[in-house]
C-alpha cells in the first residue's frame, strides 16, 4: 500500500475494482458516496425512530462518525458508521419508551450510550496493545451468534406493539414486510441493495391512499410544509444515571463482535490483511459513539448495508466514505428532511421493525453456519438455548443495586455458561 505519511497516497483508478488506497475522479467519488448514504439511510433513520430519538440528529452524527473513523483508521479501512440496532432494546428498557413520538427520557439513554462508547474505546486501546486473540477466545462464534439472536428476539415485543393498534395496521405492517422481501429478492442492481427504503416507500404510499377508508390517522404533511430547509439539528444533553449505564454499557461487547466480523469481511473482499487496524477501528467506533451520545445521537456501528454496496460495485476507496460522511452532515442540517421522515406511519415502521429485528436474529444462523459451529456438542447447544430464552423473555436481573436487562443477561449468560462448559475436554 502506497503511503504518504499518515494517510495513503491515493492513486487514480478509472476502471475495474478500486482498492482502499485508490481513488476515482471527483464526480464519480461524490456519486458513489451518495449511493452509500442511500444504502445506510433506511436503517440509520429507522433505529432512532424506534427509540424515540430525532432521526435528523442520528443522520448528522453518522456523518461525523464516518469522518472520524476515516481519520482514526488512517484512511485505510472503508466503512460507513450508522445507527446501531444493538441499543434499541436496552434504550427502551432504560427510558420506559412507549413506542411512538419523541422519547421524554432521551437524556438518560444518552448517558448510557456515552458509557458504552467509553468501554468500547477502552477495548480498542487494549486490542491495539495486545492484539485480538483474547477477543476471539472470549467471544467464539457460538457465543457471538447467541448474543445476536437474543438481541433480535428481545425486540419482538417492540415490533408487535407498533403494529397492534387495529386490524388495518397489522395488514399494513404485513404488506410492508412482503414489499421489502420482494424488493430484496426480485429486484436488480442498486434497488436490490435498498429493500428497506423501497419497500417502506411502497407501504407508505399504500397507507396514504387507504388510511382514511379504514379510519386510520392520515399522513400529516403540515409539519413538512412548516419546517425550514436549513437549521441546526436538535441536540440534546446527556444525563448520567447508574441504572441506565448498567443496562446500556454491556452493548459494547456486541459492537466489538459486530465490528470484528465486518473488518474480517472487508479483508476478504479487498484481499488485504486489515488485522493491524482492528484496534483503531474499535477506538474510532467507541469515540464516535461517545460523541453521538453527547448530542442526541444513537450509538454507531460499521454497516453491513454499505459492505453490500462495496461487494456489488467493487469500489473500496476510502475517499468515497469521506464524500458519504459530508453528504450525511449536510442532511442533518435540514429540518425539512427530518419532518419528511416524521410523516412515516407507525404501522409502516412496525412492518420494517419486523424485518429488521428478524434479520438481526437470523444473522446468528449465518454466523454459526459460516463458522461451522457443531450443535452436536452440548456446550454449544446449551449456551445458545439459554441465551435465546433469556433474551426473548427479557429476564431482568438485579446485580449490586442495578438491573441488567434481557440483552445484558443473555450476553453475559452466554459468555459465562460457554466458558464454564468449555472446561471439559471434547
Percent of residues in β-strands: under 5%
For the CA atoms, what is the radius of gyration? 21 Å
**What is the overall number of helices?**
19
Order of strands across the main sheet: 1-2
Coarse morphology = globular
The sequence of SSEs as H and E is EEEEHHEHHHHHHHHHHHEHHHHHEEH
Mean pLDDT: 83
How would a textbook summarize the main sheet? 2 strands, antiparallel
What is the strand tally? 8
- Tell me the distance between the termini: 43 Å
Low-confidence spans: none
Question: What share of the residues lie within helices?
Answer: 55-70%
Q: Which structural class is indicated by helix and strand composition?
A: mainly alpha
Task: Give a verbal description of the structure.
The protein is mainly α and 426 residues long. The protein has 19 helices and 8 strands. The protein has helices spanning 26-51, 55-72, 88-95, 106-130, 133-138, 141-154, 156-163, 167-186, 195-210, 222-226, 242-248, 251-270, 278-293, 304-313, 319-332, 335-342, 346-370, 378-392, 406-421, and strands spanning 3-4, 7-8, 11-12, 22-23, 81-83, 300-302, 397-399, 402-404. The strands form 4 sheets. The protein has a two-stranded antiparallel sheet. It has a two-stranded parallel ribbon with strand order 3-4. Strand 1 and strand 2 (7-8) form a beta hairpin. It starts with a strand and ends in a 5-residue tail after the last helix. The model has no long low-confidence stretch (mean pLDDT 83).
Amino acid at each position: 500500500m502506497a503511503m504518504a505519511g499518515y494517510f495513503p497516497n491515493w492513486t487514480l483508478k478509472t476502471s475495474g475494482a478500486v482498492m482502499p488506497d485508490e481513488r476515482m475522479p471527483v464526480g464519480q467519488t461524490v456519486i458513489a458516496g451518495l449511493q452509500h448514504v442511500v444504502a445506510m439511510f433506511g436503517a440509520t433513520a429507522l433505529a432512532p425512530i424506534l427509540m424515540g430519538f430525532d432521526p435528523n440528529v442520528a443522520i448528522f452524527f453518522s456523518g461525523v462518525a464516518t469522518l472520524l473513523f476515516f481519520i482514526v483508521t488512517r484512511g485505510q479501512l472503508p466503512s460507513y458508521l450508522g445507527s446501531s440496532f444493538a441499543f434499541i432494546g436496552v434504550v427502551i428498557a432504560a427510558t420506559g419508551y412507549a413506542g411512538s413520538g419523541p422519547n421524554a427520557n432521551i437524556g438518560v439513554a444518552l448517558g448510557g450510550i456515552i458509557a458504552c462508547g467509553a468501554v468500547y474505546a477502552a477495548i480498542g486501546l487494549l486490542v491495539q496493545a495486545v492484539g485480538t486473540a483474547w477477543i476471539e477466545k472470549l467471544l467464539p462464534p457460538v457465543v457471538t451468534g447467541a448474543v445476536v439472536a437474543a438481541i433480535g428476539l428481545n425486540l419482538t415485543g417492540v415490533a408487535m406493539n407498533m403494529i397492534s393498534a387495529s386490524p388495518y395496521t397489522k395488514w399494513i405492517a404485513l404488506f410492508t414486510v412482503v414489499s421489502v422481501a420482494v424488493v430484496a429478492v426480485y429486484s436488480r442492481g442498486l434497488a436490490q441493495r435498498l429493500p428497506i427504503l423501497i419497500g417502506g416507500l411502497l407501504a407508505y404510499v399504500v397507507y396514504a391512499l387507504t388510511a382514511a377508508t379504514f379510519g386510520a390517522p392520515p399522513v400529516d404533511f403540515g409539519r413538512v410544509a412548516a419546517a425550514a430547509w436549513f437549521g441546526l439539528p436538535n441536540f440534546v444533553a446527556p444525563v448520567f444515571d447508574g441504572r441506565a449505564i448498567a443496562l446500556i454499557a454491556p452493548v459494547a461487547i456486541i459492537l466489538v463482535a459486530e465490528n470484528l466480523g465486518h473488518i474480517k469481511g472487508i479483508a476478504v473482499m479487498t484481499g488485504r490483511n486489515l488485522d493491524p487496524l482492528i484496534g483503531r477501528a474499535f477506538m474510532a467506533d467507541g469515540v464516535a459513539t461517545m460523541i453521538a451520545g453527547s448530542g442526541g445521537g444513537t450509538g454507531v456501528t460499521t454497516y453491513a448495508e454499505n459492505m453490500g454496496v462495496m461487494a456489488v460495485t467493487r469500489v473500496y476507496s476510502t475517499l468515497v466514505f469521506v464524500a458519504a460522511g459530508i453528504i450525511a452532515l449536510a442532511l442533518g442540517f435540514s429540518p425539512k428532511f427530518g419532518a419528511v421522515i416524521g410523516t412515516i406511519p407507525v404501522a409502516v415502521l412496525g412492518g420494517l421493525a419486523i424485518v429488521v429485528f428478524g434479520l438481526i436474529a437470523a444473522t446468528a444462523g449465518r454466523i454459526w453456519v459460516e463458522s461451522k459451529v457443531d450443535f452436536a456438542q452440548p456446550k454449544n447447544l446449551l449456551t445458545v438455548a439459554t441465551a435465546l430464552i433469556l433474551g426473548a423473555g427479557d429476564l431482568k436481573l438485579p446485580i449490586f443495586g442495578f438491573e441488567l436487562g434481557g440483552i445484558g443477561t443473555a450476553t453475559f449468560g452466554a459468555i459465562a455458561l460457554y466458558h464454564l462448559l468449555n472446561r471439559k475436554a471434547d
